[in-house]
């Protein structure tokens, strides 16, 4: 698992309009149904609309374990985590979509209108003939200055690289100007810098055809989530 496959999964989740939602039924068995994706934060969170007195809400009230599956052109992203029902006015108003009126005739204030918030704990995916299983908590661990996921990097064992943090900016390939800059400014990672992404980091992530991210910007996405976690 690296930042590239994480970003590929993010883009699949963010682009799909529909997905499969699995809940635990009243009899203790998985119950799967299609559902429209209202809002997503990549593989990290997903939001759906439903009715407060519908079977899905009742199942969630009894068991908040859930799984969401997104499929696109032979690629598959399965998320496992927890789900809860949100009924507060702020959330309902912010996620309201015009076509909801077909289901909730009283609009945003319809008492039967609610939002499901799904939070991912583990990810199981198959993308571009590559599989990966990992925990979200592992992705959110700061592992480098620039957003690379060094803990699962292929060079960790092959060349005994311990990463830029432990080596103070001098990993196996030599001094890293990104890491050195970050350290001099006193940041634990580049996501904390108000200039992120600077020109140098952007070139590393998006401009280097041989060593850069594929897809471009993958490590920048990781940095964003590291920053969000630290600010929560």
Structural overview:
The chain is an alpha+beta fold. Helices cover 30% and strands 28% of the residues. It folds into 2 domains: 3-137, Pnp Oxidase, Chain A (Roll); 140-231, no CATH class. It has 9 helices and 8 strands. The chain is elongated.
Question: Which terms would index this structure?
Answer:
eight-stranded antiparallel sheet; 2 domains; about 230 residues; elongated; alpha+beta; single chain
Brief overview:
This protein has helices at 3-15, 55-62, 89-94, 136-139, 155-158, 163-166, 177-184, 199-207, 218-231; strands spanning 18-24, 30-36, 39-41, 45-51, 65-72, 75-86, 113-127, 130-135.
How far apart are the first and last residues' alpha carbons, in Å? 25 Å
User: Which architecture of the largest domain would the CATH scheme give at its second level?
Assistant: Roll
Q: Helix tally?
A: 9
User: N-to-C SSE series?
Assistant: HEEEEHEEHEEHHHHHH
Q: In the residues, how many domains can be counted?
A: 2
CATH topology of the largest domain, which one?
Answer: Pnp Oxidase, Chain A
Q: Kindly state the mean pLDDT as a whole number?
A: 95
- Quick one: CATH superfamily of the largest domain? Electron Transport, Fmn-binding Protein, Chain A
Strand content: 25-35%
**Proportion of residues in helical segments:** 25-40%
- The number of strands is 8
Low-confidence stretches: none
CATH class of the largest domain: Mainly Beta
Shape: elongated
Report the C-alpha radius of gyration, rounded: 20 Å
Largest sheet: 8 strands, antiparallel
Instruction: Give me the secondary-structure category.
Output: alpha+beta
């Amino acid at each position: 698992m690296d930042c590239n496959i994480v970003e590929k999964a993010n883009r699949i989740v963010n682009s799909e309009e529909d997905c499969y939602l699995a809940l635990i039924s009243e009899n203790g068995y998985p119950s799967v149904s299609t559902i429209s994706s209202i809002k997503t934060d990549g593989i990290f969170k997903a939001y759906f609309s439903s009715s407060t007195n519908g079977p899905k809400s009742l199942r969630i009230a009894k068991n908040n374990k859930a799984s969401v599956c997104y499929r696109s052109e032979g690629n598959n992203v399965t998320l496992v985590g927890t789900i809860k029902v949100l009924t507060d006015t702020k959330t309902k108003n912010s996620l309201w979509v015009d076509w909801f009126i077909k289901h909730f005739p009283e609009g945003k204030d319809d008492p039967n209108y609610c939002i499901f918030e799904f939070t991912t704990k583990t990810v199981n995916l198959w993308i571009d003939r590559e599989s990966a299983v990992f925990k979200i908590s592992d992705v959110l661990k700061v592992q480098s200055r620039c957003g690379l996921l060094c803990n699962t990097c292929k060079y960790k064992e092959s060349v005994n690289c311990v990463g830029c943090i432990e080596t103070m900016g001098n990993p196996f390939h030599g001094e890293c100007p990104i890491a050195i800059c970050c350290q001099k400014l006193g940041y634990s990672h580049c996501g904390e810098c108000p200039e992120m992404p600077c020109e140098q980091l952007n070139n590393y992530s998006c401009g280097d055809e041989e060593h850069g991210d594929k897809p471009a910007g993958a490590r920048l996405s990781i940095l964003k989530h590291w920053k969000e976690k630290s600010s929560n």
